[in-house]
Every structure is written in structure tokens, then in C-alpha cells.
Design the sequence.
């Protein structure tokens, strides 16, 4: 039997940032992850860090490589109806965002935890959480064929949307809010220098497209597609043809092509569970909420949750106070719903909705309004760079 203060399920951004923050406050944790270390470190996902996420990672001692290799951006471009409009974050908010892949953040966090003798159990199978309504919750799991049990004071459910923590809560104790979208993203990673210094969000009659990047040598590109899209129908030439059409810019702009290193289709949903807590288990990140990726918020929201949780646990261990823990769900949800609103808004403004020409005209008017009104641009910018974390 093992003992720790906080048992964390999941070594994604939520679980790893939480264990790092707790360690800085002298609070012991064990992270249980069902995949291998290599899998976690190579899984390609999000790429945009809000300024608050960057600050928090740097203050937590895991920002050195991010500061060196991350690409600091002071704006994004919107393309629609043959026009290009830059949203200038610096002018509108005084802030920037940093493009640094989620898997790079994960590598830095795992390295920091391992270097500090932090306990992360990879390939932990059949993880189960028990006795959540007592002061001594337990986590059971199998590792290398043997059964193990961890006794903890608290459990942090950081195991993503498909994890086991949220389904372990009796359904009557939770309220779910969900919206599915009739489209997905086909994403590629290409061995090509980015074609623009900043991200380009394009609304086109053929559907949305996004130009992003991972480094000065690697471009990340997305196309709106059917959520059940068959990748076999998308040979490389078709992907490039479609990207050229949807991202088309002015005469001087050219999309760089290169070998496609990775291809995948992601569905889109908005999802929130309330409350984000049951007994002594706290849910954080994708385990509690999902946003469509158009606002680049999933990872940032996961980090914002665990920042609140780490502070509440610090209050508990340093002075026995439980008020911050009791307020955890409410504190997080006030940010979660604002981020849900922003991600839904960006998604509905930028994706082509089949069937109703009214939506198309309304979206063009909305983009024109954002491009022509300082107030509207500022609203987009302040949400994109990240609302204050307090
Ligand atoms: P996760 O990163 O999902 O981490 C959960 C961890 O728990 C994983 O390591 C998982 O292996 C582990 N786990 C799951 N079940 C168990 C179990 N039973 N036992 C033990 N461990 C378990 N956001 C963007 O902003 N832009 C993007 O382009 C983007 N692309 C995405 C692509 C995909 C395919 C997915 C799934 C998400 C994407 N996101 C994107 C969202 C963003 O990556 C997530 O919001 C972010 O990873 C949330 O972090 P998390 O730690 O809460 O969850
Ligand atoms: C990415 O680089 O993967 C990315 C960037 C912006 C988004 C979504 C994904 O809105």
C-alpha cells in the first residue's frame, strides 16, 4: 500500500502542472497515467499558450525551454471574403501569446517531475477511484501485472474527457451541458516553414482553415471537415489543394508545402460538468469540460483549473482552511463558461454551416464588424490572449 497526499489520475497538462505546483508548496502527490511516457511526450495536440499560462509555467520552474524555443506572437490574422485583417494583441491588450506545442510542455513537466524524484507511474492499468465520500479516498490500479492501492487525502481527476474519474461519480450528482457541432478538423503537421509569422484563421465558402505552426521548420494546418471524415479520402494532394483555396491571401502570399508528417481528424464539442467536484475528488481540465479548438483554449483552461486547485490545497495543508476547496468548482466554472462562450463564438463565426444562407451573410457581417470596430477587436483579443487569472 502506498500513501500520498494527493492522488492524481492522468499525466496530461492538468495532472502534471498540478503535481508540479503542489511540489513547489511541499505537498506530495503521485500521478497515475495509463499510457507510456513516450506516448505522452509525442501526442500532438494544442499549440497556443495564453500569457497567463506562460507566466505560470515560467514561475513553476518549467519555462526555460519554452522561453527559448517558443514563438511569441503579438497578433493573429483573420481572412474572409478576399480580405485580410490583423488583430493586434499588443495594441489592443498589451499582451502576447506563445506558440509552443503541448507535447513540448509535457516533456518539460515530466522532466522536471522526474528530476525532483516526483512519482509518475506510467502504464498504470485499470485505474479505479474509491471511497470518494470519505476522508481517505483510495486509488487502485495494476502495474506490470501487479495490483496496487494508494491511500490519499484527495484525488484529482485529470484524466481527460474519456477518463474514469468523471464516470465514477454517481450520475445523479452531476449536471451535464453539451453541444455537438456538425463538423470536425482535419489536421496535418507538415515539414515546411510557416508561410506567415502569425496564425491565420480563414473563413471561406468551402469551410474554415487554420494556418499555425510548431517551429520555424514545421507548419500545423487544419481544414474544416465532416466529423466522421475518412482520411483515406484525403490524399496529400487533395489536402494541399484545399488549403491553397481556403487560405488564399493577397498576391504576395504563398502557402509553403512540405512532407506531411502526421494527419488526423478531431471531432468538436462543447461540454461542461457541474459541479467539478464530488466528495474528496476534484475534476480538472478535459475531465470536466471540453471546448472546440477554434479559440485555442483547451490546454489553457486545464492549467487555469489546477492553479485554483493547487492554491486551495495549499490553504488546506498550511492552515486547515477548507473554504477555497469548497469554492473550487464555482471559482473554476466562472472562467470555464466565459471560455466556453468565446470558443463557441469563434467556432460559429468561422465555420461554414451547411444549409442556411442566412448564416453565411451573418458571419460575413460579424467578421466585418470585428475587423472594423476597435471594441469588437479588443473583445476578441482579450479573450484570445487569456482572461486574467486573478
Ligand atoms: P489530457 O491532455 O487529455 O490528459 C489526460 C491524461 O489522462 C492523458 O495523458 C491520458 O492518457 C490519461 N488517462 C486517460 N484515462 C486514464 C485512465 N483511465 N487512467 C490513467 N490515465 C488516464 N486544444 C487546442 O487548444 N488545440 C488543438 O489543436 C487541440 N487538439 C486536440 C486534439 C485531440 C485529439 C484532443 C483529444 C484534444 C485536443 N485539444 C486541443 C485539447 C487540448 O489538448 C486539451 O484540452 C488538453 O490536453 C487538456 O489537458 P488535460 O490534462 O485536461 O487532459
Ligand atoms: C494549433 O497550433 O494546434 C492550434 C492553434 C490555434 C487553434 C487551435 C490549434 O485555435
Sequence:
Amino acid at each position: 500500500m502506498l500513501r500520498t497526499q494527493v492522488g492524481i489520475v492522468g499525466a496530461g497538462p492538468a495532472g502534471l502542472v498540478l503535481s508540479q505546483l503542489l511540489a513547489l508548496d511541499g505537498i506530495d502527490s503521485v500521478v497515475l497515467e495509463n499510457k507510456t511516457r513516450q506516448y505522452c511526450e509525442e501526442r500532438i495536440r494544442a499549440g497556443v499558450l495564453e500569457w497567463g499560462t506562460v507566466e505560470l509555467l515560467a514561475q513553476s520552474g518549467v519555462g526555460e525551454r519554452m522561453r527559448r524555443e517558443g514563438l511569441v506572437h503579438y497578433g493573429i490574422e483573420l481572412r474572409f471574403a478576399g480580405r485580410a485583417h490583423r488583430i493586434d494583441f499588443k495594441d489592443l491588450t498589451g499582451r502576447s501569446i506563445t506558440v509552443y506545442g503541448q507535447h513540448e510542455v509535457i516533456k518539460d513537466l515530466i522532466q522536471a517531475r522526474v528530476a525532483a524524484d516526483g512519482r509518475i507511474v506510467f502504464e498504470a492499468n485499470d485505474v479505479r477511484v474509491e471511497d470518494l465520500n470519505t476522508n481517505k479516498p483510495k486509488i487502485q490500479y495494476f502495474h506490470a501485472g501487479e495490483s496496487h492501492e494508494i491511500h490519499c487525502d484527495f484525488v484529482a481527476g485529470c484524466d481527460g474527457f474519456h477518463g474514469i474519474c468523471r464516470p465514477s461519480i454517481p450520475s445523479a450528482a452531476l449536471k451535464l451541458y453539451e453541444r455537438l457541432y456538425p463538423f470536425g478538423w482535419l489536421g496535418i503537421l507538415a515539414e515546411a516553414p510557416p508561410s506567415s509569422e502569425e496564425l491565420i484563421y480563414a473563413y471561406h465558402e468551402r469551410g474554415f482553415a487554420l494556418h499555425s505552426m510548431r517551429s520555424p521548420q514545421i507548419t500545423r494546418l487544419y481544414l474544416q471537415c465532416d466529423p466522421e471524415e475518412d482520411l483515406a479520402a484525403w490524399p496529400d494532394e487533395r489536402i494541399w489543394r484545399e488549403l491553397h483555396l481556403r487560405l488564399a491571401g493577397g498576391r504576395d502570399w504563398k502557402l509553403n508545402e512540405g512532407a506531411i508528417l502526421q494527419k488526423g481528424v478531431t471531432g468538436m464539442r462543447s461540454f461542461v460538468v457541474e459541479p467539478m467536484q464530488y466528495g474528496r475528488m476534484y475534476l480538472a481540465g478535459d475531465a470536466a469540460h471540453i471546448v472546440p479548438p477554434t479559440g485555442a483554449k483547451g490546454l489553457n483552461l486545464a492549467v487555469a483549473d489546477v492553479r485554483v486547485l493547487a492554491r486551495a490545497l495549499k490553504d488546506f495543508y498550511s492552515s486547515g482552511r477548507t473554504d477555497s476547496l469548497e469554492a473550487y468548482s464555482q471559482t473554476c466554472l466562472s472562467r470555464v463558461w466565459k471560455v466556453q462562450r468565446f470558443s463557441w463564438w469563434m467556432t460559429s463565426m468561422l465555420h461554414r454551416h451547411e444549409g442556411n444562407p442566412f448564416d453565411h451573410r451573418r458571419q460575413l457581417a460579424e467578421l466585418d464588424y470585428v475587423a472594423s470596430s476597435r471594441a469588437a477587436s479588443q473583445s476578441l483579443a482579450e479573450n484570445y490572449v487569456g482572461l486574467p487569472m486573478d
Observations:
- Residues 164 and 346 are 30 Å apart (CA to CA).
- The mean pLDDT is 97.
- Residues 46-48, 199, 212, 220, 293-294, 296 surround P-hydroxybenzoic acid (ligand 2) (CB under 6 Å).
- The chain has twelve helices and 23 strands.
